[in-house]
Amino acid sequence: MPKRKYKISVIQLNLNDVAENNLKKCISWVRDAASQGAEVILLPELYSSHYFCQSEDVENFALAEPLYSTSFIAFSELAKELGVVIIVPFFEKRMAGIYHNSAYIIDTDGTEAGLYRKMHIPDDPHFYEKFYFTPGDLGFQAIETKKGTVGTLICWDQWYPEAARITALKGAEVLFYPTAIGWHPKEKEQYGENQYGAWMNVMKGHAVANGVFVAAANRIGLEKYIEGTEGIQFWGASFIAGPQGEILAQASHDKEEILIAEVDLDLQENVRQNWPFFRDRRIDAFGDIVKRAIDK
């Protein structure tokens, strides 16, 4: 029988380094999380490099890796050694000209439990992801692992209630969001608090509306590698929320940290019984949701 309780972890790191160093660093932090009892462990988005999407530069495609190469081999061995599930976000080279922002879900025996490709791709100042990433084609998934059934969405997916809803309806107990989000330094004073607050609130809303646990892992640090720009100050603040939006663990804005919280499926069931949002959905009235716009 699946466990009714298990511990999840998000790891918040500064990843402004080369791939080899970031890999070693993440392996070390995953070991630390496992030693503290974590059973499902999440790394930040695009863990292996600095956030290269600040510019449109074809040389950055060299950072991508084919499926089941460096990242998969390293974390597969680690997951099997530690007996944990590891969610590993990486830059996938599918073929020349087709690249994805992806995540492995690696099971406790080192096998691939699932693969997710980011569905929503942003194009904002210094977040030029449409230049690099083809939108995902694997859909929204609930992945069964030996620890629990999890759903992985990636960063910009955070803003879409449809993504959270479908993943939860498919059976995900936890929505994991590997993330790379931060402030433009010039905007932080004026807009920073509202931007950060909206980011947290929308995911807490997904937790409430779907009766699921939510875990988001972000980066920290100023990543400034393009001459003449101020870079991006990643705001950290990784967190784990329960099925009523309650904060179970919260990280700082500027420190590398491990967060751990318990997923309690009996609590989740009780919340859904008392707040039966799934029961009361008017699926007969939702047809317009698949339209790009509802024209008058």
Give the key terms.
296 residues, alpha/beta, six-stranded mixed sheet, hydrolase activity
Can you describe this structure?
This protein has 296 residues and is an alpha/beta fold. It is 24% helix and 26% strand. It has helices spanning 19-35, 70-82, 161-169, 188-210, 265-274; strands spanning 5-12, 40-42, 85-95, 98-106, 112-117, 143-144, 149-152, 174-178, 182-183, 213-217, 220-223, 232-235, 239-241, 247-250, 257-264. It has a 6-stranded mixed β-sheet with strand order 5-4-3-2-1-15. Strands 6-7-8-10-13-14 form a 6-stranded mixed β-sheet, with helices on one face. It is globular. The relative contact order is 0.16. The model has no long low-confidence stretch (mean pLDDT 97).
Low-confidence runs: none
Query: Order of strands side by side in the largest beta sheet?
Result: 5-4-3-2-1-15
**H-E string:** EHEHEEEEEHEEHEEEEEEH
User: What does the radius of gyration come to?
Assistant: 18 Å
Keywords: Hydrolase
Domain CN hydrolase: 6-265
Pfam family, one: CN_hydrolase
Protein name: Carbon-nitrogen hydrolase
